[in-house]
Amino acid sequence: MLQRVLGFFASLFDFFDPSDDEAERPPEARDVPERFTIIPDDYHAEDVGTAGDGRHFFLANTFSGDGEFVSTFFWKPDGTFDSIEVDALGPRESVDMAALDAARARQFDLLGDFTRNPISVAPFAVQSHGTEFGFVARAADPEDADDIATITIQPGNYIAYYWPWDGEGYDT
Question: What is the pTM of this model?
Fold first, then answer.
C-alpha cells in the first residue's frame, strides 16, 4: 500500500514538473529539421544502420488499413532519400507468418554486410502500393502554441520522432 501511495505522489510531482512546461520549449521544437537522428534500440528501431553499400537503412514491419508490409527505407550516405523496398503481405489479420519471415529475410539480404548504428537522415514521403511510405515530416500547427513538429514512420504512424531530433526518444 505504501508503494502505491508513494507512486501516486511521485506521479503528481512528475505531472507538475516545471521542466516539462510546454511553454519552455525552444522555437526549434516547432520546426521540422533537415536531418534527424535514428538510434537503433531493442524496441521498435532494431534494424537501423548502414548497409554494405554505404546507404543508411531502417527495416520495419509497417501497416495501414490496406494491409501489412515489410519495408526497408534507404537513404544515400549523405542522408538524403534514396529508395524504399516494400513487400505487401495483404490484410493484417490474415498475414501468413512464413511469408512475413521470408520477406524480412529477402530484405535483410539486400543490406549485404550491414552494421547497426545511429544514422542521421532527411525526412521524406513517397507513394507505393497506393499508400504513403516514409519518415513523414509535419510542422507544428501555427494556430496551436502547444503543438510541436514530428516525423512519423508511415504507413502506420507507429513511431513519432520529435525535438531535439537526437534519436534519444520517440513515441509509439
Answer: 0.81
